[in-house]
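User: Hi! I'm working on a homework problem where we have to compare a predicted structure to a textbook description. Could you give me the structure for the chain below?
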Amino acid sequence: MFHRFTTRSLLFFIAVAIELAAGEFYEDKKVAKVEIVVVSQGDTDVDPRVYMAKMRTKEGDTFSQLIFDNDLKTLAAEFDRVEPTVSLKDNSIAITIYVTPRPYIHRITWEGNERYKSSTLQSELDVQPNQVFNRAEFNKAFNKVKEFYFKKGYFEAQLSYNIIPIPGTNKVDIDIHIVEGRSGHIKKIVLEGFTSDEKSAIEEQMYLKKYNFLLSWLTGQGIYRDELLEQDRMTILNLLHNKGYADAKVDIQLQDDPDTGKLIVHIEAHRGQLFHFGSVSFCGGELFTKEELMQRSQAVEGGTYSPDKVRDTAQAIKELYGQKGYIDASVQYEMRLSEYDPVFD
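Assistant: Happy to help. Predicted structure tokens:
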């Protein structure tokens, strides 16, 4: 009895099966026999002697697990399955490796695609019937079809495929199943809980935009992407934090427009308390007085809290020292939140 060995389980097999089956028990024993057996349901032109010649494990040599592992890797790069057996007789090792050639693709079928024709998706896949089925290469091509759907805005699209062997042949059918999900075309973006000025600033900085029938096909704008939404979330949070709302949160909901089926992106601000600066103090510097440093500070006692103001103040003081020749000056800051009030010292 032998374990099934596929390309995908190669590393697992080498780490476990070879270690347990061969391991130190077979190490340095003489190899009496090495044989490759081709297993195929249909006609094949695979000559085992070609692959025997590539193996470094040879009859008459002493067995090396490391060399044998590398031989299996070489075979796994050529075949769909590699199933080795190792046995010991009269203190010599007999090795038989059963290899299954990669099948040919008989047919590719598409199911569930409503928005795009099968011929369009087939062109994206760029894998044709009568080609050799290489699972790793096919997965790369299959991911291109997934990316095609995502770029078109179908952020919920789910794609999978089944491999169906054809009995009595070395061929397979591939059935591809698609659940397209909602269209990612954005009908509108609703901002709630923001002032007019804030809305203008957010709309200018946001990556997500309203879908434009005439331009979006060319620019890609107006198509929903998860990563763009997260960047926009951080942009909005940064704006609110710099308005003094250090505990602000942003709630984003995706809604379907019942008339068009497009997306409505609903963004609502939850500001929380307004924070202010408390005391502002300086230490460690002797070249400038506190008054001179305060002139460069955007963080002032009683002023509205803003992380950017703190960072800009540190940079301004660093530049002040640089003007005096202290180009390596380091300006660090530490913020302490009041235990009782929404105040940062």
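For your comparison, note the following. DSSP finds eleven helices and eleven strands in the chain. The mean pLDDT is 88. Good luck with the assignment!
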